[in-house]
Amino acid sequence: MRRALPILSIALLTFVIVLLMAKLAATAGLVPEDAITLWSNAITASDSQMPIGRVLAAYPTIPFLATTVLEFVSPIGISAPVLLTACVLAALASIWLVSFRRAGLSLLAALTATLLLALHPALLRAAIAGPAEIMLAGFLYLLSRALYDIRGRSAAPEVMAVALAMLGLTFTHPMGAALTCAAVPLLVFALRPELLAGSVLNLIVALVFPTLFCVVAFTYMSWVFPGSGWSFLVAPSEGLAAWAVGFSQLFGRGLSGWLALDAAIAVAAALLLAAPVVPIAIGWILQRRPLVGPAVVIVVMTMAAAGIAVATGLFGDPAALAVMPPILAAVIVARVPVVRDRLAFVIALLAVGWIGGVAGLVMLDPRGAINVSIALDGGRIDTERAAAINLGNATIGRDGILVDTFSAPAVVLGRGRARGLLSPSDDAFTFGVRFSKIETPFIAVPDPLVGAGVQDRLNKAFPTLYWRGTPGYRLVYQNANWRLFARD
């Protein structure tokens, strides 16, 4: 019991801090739209209002399924994504504390290192961003550990650990897929030299096959059900455009003139700022290749993933890669023996990295840094989302509401459930739009000139609905951006 007490304490503290941070972020409007969409889809799926095809082809798959299950078993009003995020980060903190103790750190040093890493600004940002990004951090940690294990003993369990970690990365976040793509050509540098003398190709195939097989299968399902195989990677390109705008606001024309290279440079700079213990520890062990190789692979892999994401536009923005410095620092502290001989200096470096993590976030997530600055000045980041949530609150107790929840997922959050909403996946919505005829008890439309209203399917089908209403319906609710009509 005495051994378990520090672990339970650190897990509980991390859990509570994440809940508080999530509450503050939600109040300030700092929660990303991807997290809102994930939660809305989870509510819809748990209410059995989502077609099975969309459930099977949902991406990111692992966070979506986990959030859906948690939403199904949780009472209405409980934020399943926040609960899941807090549990994942608390589990990471517990694992790190145990690994630090096994590495020979004293209890006080292990607790201090765990707090500095688990509550690192980059990981707190990931926690605010929702389950997908914090799960990305978890699988990146598993891959980092597995690369050290496979360097020491390349048996079947170690090979499968690397393969499964890459599979988890791919289906946890679009940037996880970019990390996996970047990792494939670099895996040879993490393997033992004697293995390279044999059949390298067979080993690489064994490492990559589970991910490749699942990607092909998932692409086929995505093609069969929603209608286009790679559609699950296209949506994040909007986030990349926003990231590029924020980056240009911060650095002007950029660091090198080529945005993809600038993204890779930003990752390297963020590592130096947010985890100085990593390059310094690598310098201490530069002659010990088994300890240096995996760390270098992780760094180069992350830089390459940032460049690939920006160059292709398929994997979203590189901001999610900000979790790499604290993750790699945790692995270095646990796996590099020389660390325990210079413990005081290492703890000081972790503290410096915690402070530098803020600067690292500014480089990798300039848009988020601007939003935080606005929130600290008392401004509201997303009034449009607040209006959609208020509309959702107004629909409570009403059923048969025709509304485009795909373009405004916050409506589902405000209502607390999807049952009673007729979304684009319902036949009533499809028939109404196709035949330009509305027969539902209620219809909700946003201002066609503001944000999501431009993309709203009902506004496109009925261009004057928001302004003039429709015969047989009366206005029963309105706010800054939304109007709700009821049938007479």
Summarize, please:
Keywords: Membrane, Transmembrane, Transmembrane helix. The chain is mainly α and 488 residues long.
> Structural class of the secondary elements?
mainly alpha
Number of helices: 24
Mean pLDDT: 88
Strand segment count: 5
Gyration radius, in Å = 24 Å
**H/E series:** HHHHHHHHHHHHHHHHHHHHEHEHEHHEE
The fraction of residues in strands falls at: under 5%
User: Overall 3D geometry?
Assistant: elongated
The termini sit apart by 66 Å
Q: What share of the residues lie within helices?
A: 55-70%
Give the uncertain stretches in residue-range form: none
Q: Estimate nothing, just give the exact number of structural domains.
A: 2
Q: Numbering strands along the chain, what is their spatial order in the largest sheet?
A: 2-1-3-5-4
The largest pleated sheet is described as:
5 strands, mixed
Outline the structure in words.
Helix 18 crosses helix 19 (366-376). The chain has a five-stranded mixed beta sheet with strand order 2-1-3-5-4. It has helices spanning 4-28, 33-46, 52-56, 61-73, 80-102, 107-118, 121-129, 131-152, 156-170, 174-183, 193-196, 200-224, 237-251, 259-274, 277-284, 289-312, 324-335, 343-364, 366-376, 383-394, 410-415, 427-435, 457-461, 465-468, and strands spanning 401-402, 421-422, 442-446, 473-478, 482-487. The protein folds into two domains: 4-376, no CATH class; 383-487, no CATH class. The chain is elongated, with a radius of gyration of 24 Å. The protein is 66% helix and 4% strand. By secondary structure, the protein is mainly α. Keywords: Membrane, Transmembrane, Transmembrane helix. This is Glycosyltransferase RgtA/B/C/D-like domain-containing protein. The chain crosses the membrane at residues 78-98, 105-122, 160-189, 195-218, 263-286, 291-312, 318-336, 343-364.
